[in-house]
Every structure is written in structure tokens, then in C-alpha cells.
Design goal:
7 helices, three-stranded mixed sheet, globular, 12 strands, 269 residues, alpha/beta, seven-stranded mixed sheet, Rossmann fold
Length: 269
């Protein structure tokens, strides 16, 4: 089965490696120049896989690749822009996405942070059929993770990685046997935009201690700016209890893969 793979970052790297170890052919990739460069460096046998840059919306190139390469299915893992009906229909609807949250409850971005603020006891990873409306396609599979009372956005994200890995393996088995289920989502859920979390980083002196704790934990994802108090024009940062003395601003972003760190040298399709 020929796959068009879209995405970048840590979860995409994990899923792409699983995909390569199975009986699938990665016919083309839509990703960043740095991610593709790292992938190509590590897997020299894949150096001729066609590459489409995701720096701009390149749907014409995607449609061209689907037709010329006879793509059977499309798999997206944290791809950075919504795909149109034309792209989805070009693979006769066999288009799937891994979303690192429960659907339809948590669509969009910063879902882990919002879940902690909402005091969720469980967090979910979802694989779903793609639809032209963001994070709205029928569910394929989901798996849950327990949320601890001391979890930060960082620690909860770490918990999702092995869960996503196992869920993706289960999904590929279904895809290989052409037995991918469809369960319609119920309810509208909530969509969170890219900047939706920013107001929740601000702690006020009127906030209750429990709310301060949740804002602090939910905002902690180094090296992104943590929760803060704004006093007399100054930012007073609030950090959760740290197990190690490393400074948060010096941390490597956990959601970036080793391939994201490579120097871009790939040539677009």
C-alpha cells in the first residue's frame, strides 16, 4: 500500500518509523525541510522519496503526487494545515489523522494545557478519518491516559508518546486488512486556536490557590514561556516543582524530533 505521509515533530517521527517497519510504501512526504533532511540522512535508502515542503499550502503538488504516484492512502500526524475536500477525495477518502487529544472535546491546539486546567482525570489520543473541517472526522481508535494531580503539560505529553505509538500500530493493522472502523463523533466539542492558551498563562492575585496550581502546571512546557504574574511592568514567572535544577528556558522542546534539528538541505518535489 502506497502512503502519502504528512507531519513533523516527535510524534510524526515515532509514527513514521513504525510505518517504515511495516508492509507499507512511503511514496511521498509533506513536511518541513529540516525534518525531511534528518529523515533522509538517517534513512539513506529513502533519499529518493518525493518531498513536498509544508512551509506554504502546496495542495496542487499534493494532488499531483497522489495521481502520479498512485497513492492509496494519506496519513497525517500533526500536520500544520487543514486539508481540503479535494485532497481527501483524491485518495477516495482514505485519509487519516493522529490527534493528540480526545475528539470532539478537544479540537485544535494546546489541548493538553486546556485539559489540565479543566481538571480532567483522563487524557486521550485519537486516530480519526480526515474531514475538511478540522478534527471532525469519524473516530477510528482512541486510547486513554490517567492524569495525575501533579502532571504538567510536559509530563502529560510524555505520557502520550507510548500510548500514541501503540495506538498507531493498532491502526496500521486495521488499515492493512482494510478493516478501519468509523464511529461518528457525538457533540460539537470545543476548538482551541493557536493563541487560545495565552490568556491562561496570566496569574492574578485574586486567583484561588488551586487555579494558580493548575495554570502553573498546564503552562509548563519548556522552553515555552511559563505561567506568570504581571506586576509593575515585570514578569514574575511561576514554575511547578522541578525534579531537576535545569532552567526551563534552556530545555529542548520535547515535541521536536531529532530530525527537526537537522540543517535543511532537502530539495522540494
Amino acid at each position: 500500500m502506497k502512503i502519502l505521509f504528512l507531519g513533523e515533530g516527535k510524534l510524526a517521527q515515532i509514527c513514521l518509523k513504525i510505518l517504515m517497519s511495516d508492509d507499507f510504501i512511503i511514496a511521498a512526504m509533506v513536511t518541513s525541510e529540516s525534518f525531511h533532511s534528518g529523515f533522509r540522512t538517517e534513512h539513506k535508502e529513502c533519499s529518493k522519496i518525493p518531498f513536498i515542503s509544508n512551509s506554504v499550502r502546496n495542495e496542487d503538488q499534493i494532488l499531483k503526487a497522489v495521481n502520479s504516484l498512485e497513492i492509496d492512502a494519506l496519513i497525517s500526524v500533526q500536520h500544520k494545515w487543514i486539508l481540503s475536500k479535494d485532497v481527501i477525495s483524491s485518495v477516495t477518502g482514505k485519509a487519516f489523522n493522529l490527534h493528540n487529544a480526545r475528539l470532539p472535546d478537544y479540537k485544535g491546539h494546546n489541548t493538553i494545557s486546556h485539559a489540565i486546567l479543566n481538571d480532567e482525570k483522563e487524557y486521550f489520543v485519537t486516530i480519526h478519518w480526515l474531514a475538511a473541517e478540522v478534527d471532525s472526522g469519524d473516530r477510528v481508535l482512541e486510547s486513554s491516559i490517567e492524569v495525575d494531580a501533579r502532571d504538567t503539560a510536559l509530563s502529560l505529553y510524555e505520557k502520550t508518546l507510548p500510548t500514541a505509538k501503540n495506538l498507531f500500530k493498532d491502526f496500521l493493522r486495521l488499515l492493512k486488512n482494510d478493516k478501519v472502523p468509523r464511529t461518528p463523533l457525538t457533540g460539537q466539542g470545543t476548538y482551541f486556536g493557536k493563541s487560545s492558551w495565552l490568556p491562561n498563562k496570566i496569574i492574578t492575585l485574586n486567583d484561588e490557590p488551586d487555579l494558580i496550581d493548575k495554570k502553573t502546571r498546564a503552562s509548563y512546557f519548556p522552553p515555552h514561556e511559563p505561567a506568570r504574574l504581571d506586576i509593575m511592568g515585570k514578569k514574575i514567572y511561576c514554575l511547578p516543582d522541578a525534579s531537576e535544577p535545569r532552567l526551563w528556558e534552556k530545555e529542548k522542546p520535547l515535541n521536536k524530533s531529532t530530525w527537526d534539528e537537522c540543517h535543511p538541505s532537502a530539495k522540494p518535489l
